[in-house]
Amino acid sequence: MVVATDVDKVSILGKESIHCGFHLIPYIANTVITTLPSSTYVLITDTNVGSFHLSAFESEFDQTVSKLPEKGRSRFLSFVIPPGETSKSREGKASIEDFLLLHRCTRDTVILALGGGVIGDLVGFVAATFMRGVRFVQIPTTLLAMVDSSVGGKTAIDTPLGKNLIGAFWQPEYIFIDASFLETLPAREFSNGMAEVVKTAAIWNEDEFTALESRSASLFSAIQTPSTNFAGRTKTTRSAAQKLLLSIIVGSISVKAHIVTVDERETGLRNLVNFGHTIGHAIEAVLTPSMLHGECVSVGMILEAEVARSMGVFGQVGVGRLTRCLKAYNLPVSLTDPRITTLPASKLLTVERLLDIMKVDKKNSGTQKKIVILNRIGKTYEEKATNVSDEIIAKILSDAARVVPGIPTKNPVRMATPGSKSISNRVLLLAALGSGTCRLKNLLHSDDTQVMMSALMDLKGASFSWEDGGETLVVKGGGGSLFVPPSGKEIYLGNAGTAARFLTTVCTLVQPSADSSAKATVITGNARMKQRPIGPLVTALRANGTVIDYLEGEGCLPLSIAPDGLKGGRIQLAASVSSQYVSSILLCAPYAAEPVTLELTGGQVISQPYIDMTIAMMRTFGVEVVREKDADGKLLDVYSIPKTTYKNPEAYNIESDASSATYPLAIAAITGTTCTIENIGSESLQGDARFAKEVLERMGCVVVQTATETTVTGPPKGQLKAPGYIDMEPMTDAFLTASVLAAVSTGPGSVEGNVTRIQGIANQRVKECNRIQAMIDQLAKFGIETKELDDGLEIYGKPIPELKENVSVHCYDDHRVAMAFSVLASVVRGTILEEKRCVEKTWPNWWDDLENKIGIKVEGVDLAGTVESTASPSGTVSKDPSASVVVLGMRGSGKSFIGEMAASALAWPFIDADVYFAEKHQTGVREFVHKHGWTAFRAAETEILKELLVTYPSGHILSLGGGIVETPEAREHLKEYAKKGPVVHIVREIDEVVKYLGEETARPAYGEPVTDVFRRREPWFTECCNYEFVNYTGVLTASINGYASTPVEQNGGDYIPSRTSSVRGEVSRFFGHITGHKPNLAPNLAADKRSYFLSLTYPDVTPALPYIEELTTGVDAVELRVDLLRSPKDVGSLNSYIPPAAYVAEQVAALRKKTSLPIVFTARTVSQGGSFPDTDEKAAFELFNLALRLGVEYVDVEISWSEKQIKNLSARKGNSQIITSWHDWSGKMKWNSIEVKDKYDSAARLGDVVKIVGKATCLEDNFALYEFVSRMRARPNPKPFIAINMGIEGQMSRILNSSFSPVTHPLVPSRAAPGQLSFVQIQTALHLIGQLPTRRFFIFGHPIAHSMSPTLHNTGFEALGLPYKYEVLETADVGEEIKFAIASPDFGGASVTIPFKLDIIPLLDALSPEAEAIGAVNTVIPRARNGSHILYGDNTDWLGIRECIRTRLPSSILKPEAALIIGAGGTSRAAIYALQNLGVPRIYLFNRTRSSAQALVDAFPNAHIELVDELGKWPDNGPAPSVIISTVPASATSTDSSTEGLYLPSTIFAPEGGVVIDMAYKPAMTPLLTLAASTPSRKKWNSVKGVEVLLEQGYRQFELWTGRQCPKKVVSQKVWEKYNA
Ligand SMILES: NC(=O)c1ccc[n+]([C@@H]2O[C@H](COP(=O)([O-])OP(=O)(O)OC[C@H]3O[C@@H](n4cnc5c(N)ncnc54)[C@H](O)[C@@H]3O)[C@@H](O)[C@H]2O)c1
C-alpha cells in the first residue's frame, strides 16, 4: 500500500524533480522504483546519517522491491563511508567506485546519495563518471544540502590544492527534500544551512526575509521538537512550525531552481547566489575546518553588506536587519565573534591575507575583485556581481581606521544623525509594555537596540516586524505580560549598559512560564558588562521585596531575578551613579502591584535631563508621573507613578541622537566650517542638544538653533578658544567631544593657560570604560597635558601643529572615545582609531558618513599587519655590516676587554672614549671631574659621543663609559644610532663589578653605592642598546670553567680552553653575528644538506655543560627549550611557566661559554605541546626580543601568536632568523589537507625557516608528509622546512626530514617530543635505507705507518655513526694506486702528507685559494659541481696553526705585534699564511739556509716577512715575537750552543709571554718546548705540541669531508692514547 504523503514539487530545468515534504522514505522508495526502473539501486551515505536513517531505507526498499516480480527483481545495496570533508576526495571517490565494480553494477544502476553536501557532491561526481554516467537521486539530510548543494547539479571532490577543484555538472533525476531529517541534525549544522537560506532571501525576496527575521524561534522549534507518528507527512498532520519550515525551504529552493534554470552553467545571474561568498570564502579558507561554510558566509554577508553601505548603495537599516537576522540563527556576524577569536587560526585573518585569497575567485575578471552588492533587502545592485576596488574591501576588513585630515569637502554639511539611543531604548520598552500596535520611525539600528529587542522577544514581551524596507518597526505590545525564558537560556546583553539597567527592573515583572521548568530569569553580559555597576538598582529592588541574586561578582551582572512581580509602594533609590536606574524603575512602575512612589536618595541626582526625558515619553504613552514638591513649591526628588498600562500611540518618530550630533558639529568647529544637524533643536528631549549653545558657542563658534535644527560654524582653524570652566552635568556623554576640542583650544580669548575645566561628569568613570581616564591617557599620546578632578578633568590646549602626529588611539571598545578622537584626527595627521567597530553601538555607519556625508576621507588600517617603526628595543633593523659597533656598560663590566677582543676579531680599530677624552681635553677623566664637576663632565662626554659617531660611523669599535646613559641627550643619540648599527651593553654580575672596582682607580668614584648606580642605569641601558653581551665571570661559570687551568697532560693530553679563550671564541661569534661579518648560522640548513639540532630539555642547562660536546656530536645547532627552564626557586613547577628573563639570559650565556653552535630559542606553548602559557603573548615576545638582544641565532615563534607581533619581531631580527612553527598534537591534522597548506603558507610568509609538526597514527602519515614536503620544495625559492610527525609511528619522518631535525641524545634526561631519535640513530637508519652510502678515506704519503690520522678520523666517524672508513695508503709515489683510489665511486676524501703535498696537485680539478697561496694540498675532497664530480684540493695545516695561536694566546696579549717562524720548509708556508690571516704585522723568519728563506719571502709578497740572522736579535730593533713556530725536526734543534743542531737561546722568549708551537710530533716535549717551560718569564708562555696542531687541522679536515663538527673530545682522547702508547 502506498502511504498517503503530501509533497510540494518545485520545477528545475523544466522538470518537476524536486519533491519536498516530511517523512518521505516510503514515498521515495516507491517513486524511485516505479519511475526509475533498474537492476540495482545503491544507496550511499555516511556513518552519522546511516546510524539514524539507513535501516528505514533498507526495509522500505526491500519491501517495495519484494513486491516486484521475482524474475529480474532489482537489488538494493548500501555503502556507508566515514563522514566529513576528508571523504570528499579522490580516495573517497575510488572507494565508492570499487564498491560498485565489485558488486558488478552496470550502466542502469541508480545511485541514491543520502546525506549532507559531502555525500551529495561526492556521490554525484561518482554518478557523473561511473560507466560514463549513471542516473542518481539526491536525498539531502542537512539544511545546507537541501537548499543549496543538492540543487543545481554541481558535483565535485576536493584535492589537497583546494576544494571542489575536480567535478562535473550532473543533474539528479530527483531531489527528495525530507525536512524531518532535520530533526536529527545538530543545531550548529542547522544554523549553517540557515546562512544560505537567509542569503537567498536577502538577494531575492524581501517577504521571505521578513518571515525569517521574525520567525526564528518557530523555525528552531520545528526541528527541535521531534514529530511523532510521522506528523507532517500529510498536510492535515503538519504543525504550524512544520509548515513554516517547509515553506522557507521550498522558498529558498525555488529561488535557486529558478536561477539554475535561467543560468545552468553559472555565467551571470547564478553569480548572485554568491552574495557573502567572496569575503566568506576567504575567511573560510583560513578558518576551515573549525568554522563551517555557512558561518563564514554569514560573516562574509555582513562585511559585503558593509562594502555596499560604504559605496553608498545600501543603507544601515539593511545592514542592521541582516545582522539581526543572522544573529537570530546563532550565526556569527563579525570576525570578532568569540567563536572566531578563540581559534588560533584567527590570528591569520589579516587584511592582506584575505585580499590575497580573494584574488583567486571564479567571479573575478583579471585582478578586479567582484562582490554581489545589495541595494536593499531582497534586491541586488546589479544582476551580477559588481566590481569593487581592493581599497574599499581593505577598509571594511580592517580593524582600525585612519582619518585623513582636511577640510570637509561637503562643507556646508547638512545631515541627520541616527535615532537617539536613549529614546530608541525607552520607546522600545514602552511600546513593548504597552497595549496595541505602535509604528516606530528612525529607530537606531545598533547593538543596544538589537539587544533590547532580542531580550524582549526572549521574554515573550512583544513581537516585532518591519515595514517600508525596514525603515519602520512595528511593535505589537504585550501589555506587560512577560515570561521566564526556558531554563538554560540566559539573556545576553553584551556591553549594552542601557539595556542592562532597564531590563533588570523589567525582569521583576516577569511571570513564571507554564511550560518551563525555569525558576528565574538570568541576565548577563560580556566581560566589561560584568564590571559595570548595577548595585544601587538591585538594592532598591531587593528592598522592595524582589529576590535578585548576583551570580558572579557582587554589584554586577549576571543576575538571577525571581519571577515574583514588582511589589511597588515606596521605593528608595540612590541615584547619584546613574539616572538609568531611575528611568528603569519609572518605566516599569505602572506595572507594579501597588502604585509606586519613587524616592531618590544620596544627595545629588545625576543627569536629571534623562529622567525628564523618561517622564516626557511615559506621558506620550499615557502615563502621568508626578514629581512632588515641598511646602514652598520646590521640586523634590520624589516621583509618584499610578498603577496602569501604557497605551501605544499609533506611531512614534524617534528624535536623532544629540550625543552623536556633537561629532559632526565639533568637526565644523575644529575645521572652521559649517554643519547643520536636522532633527535636533532647542525643543529636544535630550540634554546633549545643549552642547552647541553651551559649549561650542563659548569656544568661539557661531551657533544658530531653531526648535528642530542646529547649525554650527567654527572660527578659522586653530582659533577655538579655551573657555575655562564648563559644567557638563546636563550633557555628560558630550564631554569627550568637548575634551578633544579643548586639546586644540588656544585661540584669542582663551582663558589663561588655555585651560578647559570640565566638571559634573563623575558618572563617566563607570560607562563603557572609565572615560575620564581614557581621555587623559589618549590625549597624552598627542602630547596634551591634563589633570584629573573628582568630577571631571582639566585640559591644557596646544596649537594644532604642536600635537604629536601618527598617534594610535586605543578606543576601549567605547564608541564615544572613537568618534570623539576622529574629530581630533580631522586636524592631526596620521591618527589611527583602533577598534573602529566600536562605533556600531550608536552610529554603525559613522565611518561611511564621515567620508560620504561630511567629506573627510577614512582609510582602513590593518593593525595586525602594521610593523612598528619605533626605535627597536632589540636586534637592529640595519643590515649594514660596516656600521661601527658601540659598546657600553657599567664601569668594571669588562667593556674595554670585550671591546678590544671584538676589535681584534673583526680586525677593526678600537676607540676607548676615555682615552679619546683625555687626548682631547689634555686631562684625565678623574681630574676633569675634580676641576669642573660632574655636570660639565657629562656635557663633555656627550659631545665626545656625538663626535665619535660622526667621525667613525663605520668600521670601528667605540667603547663608552657607563655614565653616558645618565643624560637624556646622550640617550637620544644612542637610540638614534641603534636604528642604524649595533649598540651593545656589556653585562656582568654586579658583585663581580663591585669586587673589580675595589681595585680600580683610574675613574672617579661614584660617590654612591655601585649597586644603586647600576639599578638606576639598568633601564637606560635597556632603552639605548639593541644588544646585550653577557660577560658573566663569577658563580655561574665557575662550575663550567673550574678546570680551566688544568695542564694539558692531566686531561688525557687534551687541550682545555681557558676562560679567556672561551670568551674570545664567544666574542668573535657574537660580534661576527650581530655585525653580519660572519653570521653564526648553520651552513647545512641553507645548503639543503641534512641538518640537526639537539633539544636541551633541562630546567637548568649548566649541569649538562661539561658534556655539551658529546651531546652535540654531529648536530648543527642546539635548541634551548626556554619553556622547560625553571629558575632555582620554581624547580618543582609543572604547570605552564614563564621563566624570568634574567634567568634565561644567564642560561644562554652559560651555554655560549661552552658551545659556539647556533642556538634555537624555543618557548613552546601548552597547546602546542610545551609549557609556556598560551595566553601570555606579551611575555613570550619579551623573551623573543631578549633572545635577539643576546644575539641568539634562531628564534622559534609559533604562528598562533599574532601576526603583528611576529612581523615586529622579524623587523628586529638583524642577522638572526625566525623559525615559524605550528604543532598539532591532536593527530587530526592531515598533511594533504588545505589546513596544512595554509599553515605552511603563513609560516613561510612570516619566517625564514618553516616548521610544521603533526602526529602520525600510522606509517602512511609519513608518506603524506613526505609528499607534502616534496611539493613545497618544488616551489620557487623554498624556505628550509622542518616537517615532522610526532609519535612512534612518526619516527620515519624524523629520519627523512632534512632541515634541522630535532634530535635527542642518550644523555639527555627527557625527550623534547615523543619519537625523537638521536643523531647517531638517524645516521644508522639513513645508511640502512640507502640514503647514506659507505665511503672510503685515505692518507697518502710515506712513511705513514704510524700516522695518527686513521685514529683521528675513524674515531670521529664512529662517534657520529657514519658508515665511513679511513685507511692508510702508503705508496712510493703518486702513482696508479692513488689514482685508482681517488677515482673510485666510494672515495670520500684523503689526507695528503709529506712528501706528496705538491705531487698530488696535478690530479686535482680545483684548489682552494688557501691551497693556492700556500702552494700545497693536504686535503682532497670530492665535490659535486654542475652535475659531475670533481676533486678539490684544500689545505688545513694553516687552520690548525691559526686555531692553536688563537686559542692558546695568553689573554694579556690581545693581538701579537710580531711572530717568529723557525725553518723554511713546506710547513712554514702554512705558518706564514696563518699569521698573515691573523693580521700579525711583522713576521720574523729564521732559517739556516738563507736562500730558501728568501724564496719564501718572495712567495708571499704581501706579508711583512723579515729575515732573522740570529735568534733573539730582532730586525730593526723590532718588538720581540709573542708567537713562535718551529717547523724544523726536533732532532735538528738544541738548547746547548756547543752541540751540532740549531741552537735555541732562551732570549727568544720575551718576558711578556706568548705562545710557542713546535710542529714536530716526536718527542712530545721538544727542546724548544722544554726551553719555554724552563725559561723564567714575567708572563706565561703557552706551549703547543705538534700533535695538537695535527689534531686541530684534522678537525677541519673532518668538517670539510662530513660537513659536521668533529667530536673533538673523544677524538683527541683516542689520539693521545695512541700517541702515548
Ligand atoms: N554542489 C554545490 O553546489 C554545493 C553548494 C554548497 C556546498 N557544497 C558542499 O557541501 C559540503 C558541505 O555540506 P554539509 O554542510 O551538508 O556538510 P556534511 O555533508 O559534512 O554534513 C555535516 C555533518 O552533519 C552530519 N549529518 C548530515 N545530515 C544529518 C542528519 N540529518 N542528522 C544527523 N547528522 C547529519 C554529517 O554526517 C556531517 O557530520 C561541502 O563539501 C561543500 O563544498 C556544495
UniProtKB/TrEMBL annotation:
Reactions catalysed according to its record: 3-dehydroquinate = 3-dehydroshikimate + H2O; shikimate + NADP(+) = 3-dehydroshikimate + NADPH + H(+); shikimate + ATP = 3-phosphoshikimate + ADP + H(+); 3-phosphoshikimate + phosphoenolpyruvate = 5-O-(1-carboxyvinyl)-3-phosphoshikimate + phosphate
Pathway(s) the chain acts in: Metabolic intermediate biosynthesis; chorismate biosynthesis; chorismate from D-erythrose 4-phosphate and phosphoenolpyruvate: step 4/7; Metabolic intermediate biosynthesis; chorismate biosynthesis; chorismate from D-erythrose 4-phosphate and phosphoenolpyruvate: step 3/7; Metabolic intermediate biosynthesis; chorismate biosynthesis; chorismate from D-erythrose 4-phosphate and phosphoenolpyruvate: step 6/7; Metabolic intermediate biosynthesis; chorismate biosynthesis; chorismate from D-erythrose 4-phosphate and phosphoenolpyruvate: step 5/7
Domain of life from the UniProt record: Eukaryota
Keyword Magnesium attributed: no
Region (Shikimate dehydrogenase): 1334-1621
One CC-aspect GO term: cytoplasm
Subcellular location per the Swiss-Prot or TrEMBL entry: Cytoplasm
Active site: E266 (proton acceptor), H281 (proton acceptor), C838 (for epsp synthase activity), H1223 (proton acceptor), K1251 (schiff-base intermediate with substrate)
Quinate/shikimate 5-dehydrogenase/glutamyl-tRNA reductase domain residues: 1454-1508
EC number from the UniProt entry: 4.2.3.4, 2.5.1.19, 2.7.1.71, 4.2.1.10
Pfam families: DHQ_synthase, DHQS_C, DHquinase_I, EPSP_synthase, SDH_C, Shikimate_DH, Shikimate_dh_N, SKI
Residue numbers spanned by region 3-dehydroquinate synthase: 1-390
Sequence positions that bind 7-phospho-2-dehydro-3-deoxy-D-arabino-heptonate: 132, 148, 154, 164, 196-199, 256, 270-274, 277, 293, 362
Protein keywords: Amino-acid biosynthesis, Aromatic amino acid biosynthesis, ATP-binding, Cytoplasm, Kinase, Lyase, Metal-binding, Multifunctional enzyme, NADP, Nucleotide-binding, Oxidoreductase, Transferase, Zinc
Domain 3-dehydroquinate synthase C-terminal: residue ranges: 193-364
Chief location bin: cytoplasm
Binding annotation for ATP: G889, M890, R891, G892, S893, G894, K895, S896
Family membership: Belongs to the EPSP synthase family. In the 4th section; belongs to the type-I 3-dehydroquinase family.
Role according to the record: The AROM polypeptide catalyzes 5 consecutive enzymatic reactions in prechorismate polyaromatic amino acid biosynthesis.
Subunit structure: Homodimer.
Record's protein name: Pentafunctional AROM polypeptide
Provenance organism: Neolentinus lepideus HHB14362 ss-1
